[in-house]
Amino acid sequence: QVQLVDSGGGLVQAGGSLRLSCAASTRNTNMFAMGWFRQAPGKEREFVAAVSWDGSNTNYARSVKGRFTISRDVAENTGYLQLNSLKPEDTAVYYCAAVSGPPSKVYRNEYEYGYWGQGTQVTVSS
User: Residues 25-46: pLDDT tens digits?
Assistant: First the structure.
């Protein structure tokens, strides 16, 4: 069983930055690919970014590419999402997720993920 706790959200002005963290409860997450998703009020949850469990591959939604960076610290069992140049349309609850799979595979589909954090609110003011 893997438990994920995501944190780091907050209120920030447009153009600002935040770093979200996703702490895993078990060292076995070294072998789990990780992803971040977000859900804005009245909208469906959408893919944001993903990283393979060996760290060799990443993938980003077009709307965040070049502004957000996904990473992971294997020693700390923690994943990160750096959010730069934030826009009001980035306002949402952000969720981290984990899935076991091949070392270099990234996952964009939320239904492929078996473990989820509780979500952290990001609010960007204009």
Answer: 876 656 789 999 999 999 999 9
Nearest to 93 by CA among 115, 123, 64, 69: 123
CA distance 85 to 98: 26
Nearest to 83 by CA among 97, 91, 75, 55: 91
Per-residue pLDDT, 75: 80
Give the model's pLDDT for residue 54. 87
For residue 43, what is the DSSP state? S
Strand partners, 94: 38, 120
Average pLDDT over residues 44-54: 95
- How many CA atoms lie within 13 Å of 24's alpha carbon, on the beta-carbon side? 27
Residues 6 or more apart in contact with residue 94 via CB below 8 angstroms:
6, 9, 20, 36, 37, 38, 48, 81, 119, 120, 121, 122
Categorise residue 98: left if φ over 0, alpha if ψ from -120 to 50, beta otherwise.
beta
